[in-house]
Amino acid sequence: MMKTTILLVEGKRSPRPSFQIGLVKKGYEVYSVPNGNAALQLLDEVQPHVILVDSASMRTNGKRICQSLHEKSPKIPIIVVINQNSNSQDKFDAEVILVEPFTLPKLINRIRTFVPNDKKSTIMVGPMELDIEQHLARCEGRQAKLTPRLSALLKAFLEKPGVVIDRKELFQQIWETEYVGDTRPLDVHISWLRQKLEEDPRHPKFIKTIRGVGYRLDIEPHPTRKKSSEHKV
What is residue 214's predicted lDDT score, i.e. its pLDDT? Predict the structure, then answer.
């Protein structure tokens, strides 16, 4: 599958590491430029899926950069990063405004909002990520290779974060059967999944048992929003 390409506009003022490091590790193709003029010159050549303007690392609030980039390529979404001292009431010509500090998974969630093909092979909700093709799960620094059935089970949870899923419904979906006379294999697989992903499987933080009903993934979903500002992260 073709890599998602990101055009990153960043300066050298930020005390934190460049976003490029984390994004490249996640498999993204990142082109980094130091200012808006360089971004405009590279725009046609790179044809990025997303533009990331890190105004928190530059001597500018990024408003003119976003405006110029949108005027040249209005169909390419822009994510702008601002620091806490910036005026949150400023109107940016950008799809998303992220206020520091925030996590890399949160940034990646925003990027995936604008890259439909990227969402087909990977599902990410909060700190939990599943590579469907590789059956590879990540959660808060832990990484685990899953069996196809465990992968399907985690996928079912990630598609309905915060929702209680009836145990019989979950069993029928994962085992692809109408028989629900004995759902104990589901309990066993839930236990295995907790051992893979939870820091303390006996006291799970994410995969919760709802007695008499079923299970719930305790992660707040991130809604897809356009032209939105985030004042608190």
Answer: 95
